[in-house]
Amino acid sequence: MPYPRAPYYMLAVIGFLILGFWQSYFAIATTVPWQFHAHGMAASLWVLTVTLQSWTAHRKTQLPLHRAVGQASLFLFPFLTAGLAAIIDRQGKDFLAGDPVNLLDGRGFMLGTVVALAAYVTVYYRALKYRRKVWVHAGYMLSTPLILFESPFSRVLGLHVPGFVVDGPAQFARIMPSIEWSMAIELAVIAVVWWRVRERANPFLVTGGFITVEMLAMGIANHIDALKQVDLFIGNLPSAPIVVAGFAIGVATSWLGWNAGKPKQAVRPVVAAAA
What we know:
Distance between the termini: 55 Å
Helix content: over 70%
Number of strands: 0
């Protein structure tokens, strides 16, 4: 099976998630907005799902569990996309309310989350479509944690690495560079994976393409004044239609991807009856 060390890679992802989000989410979970819970719970379950899949894939006796977890991901994915939509909603609401971090970088956060949502939809659809090609399927599924890995990793930088540490409003300008550097590290990880297994790691390159677009989009967003109006528009919308739209996108992705991966039935030739 491909990527035999994948479970250890996933455990490292979980470690960074806990370390990065401890102060800003887990330690204050009772006080954060509901949108953070919607995203945090769905994203955490997704990481655990990929971890369990990577573990069971390398044990023949657990392949039925691997398939069951994969089928369960069809129902989890709409909650993942709904959670991302909830974060877009929260970003708009905070921008409208004059939150200083979002006034500074809200346009980049919003545009980056939209690109991340598109990345998840594309990568998961292709993971389902090519689920019978083990290297392709594994590559797409294992690359999904990289799409938003910049979020916990940039928080680790902001907590512990000199030059990125944010102690208050005076250092808010360091937030975006920490995110950009975190995405650069993601691309470095993808480059190492591709160097080791070459074309078999092409699914990681697809994810890397989205990360590159996200990186560029977040870098230039503050120079696009029209995005302020987009943030204000989102901030003035009710939350429900935004989250429902995200959920619907996830449902469509699961359904279309699953059906695209079904084996094609051979067409039997029709033999004309003798006259």
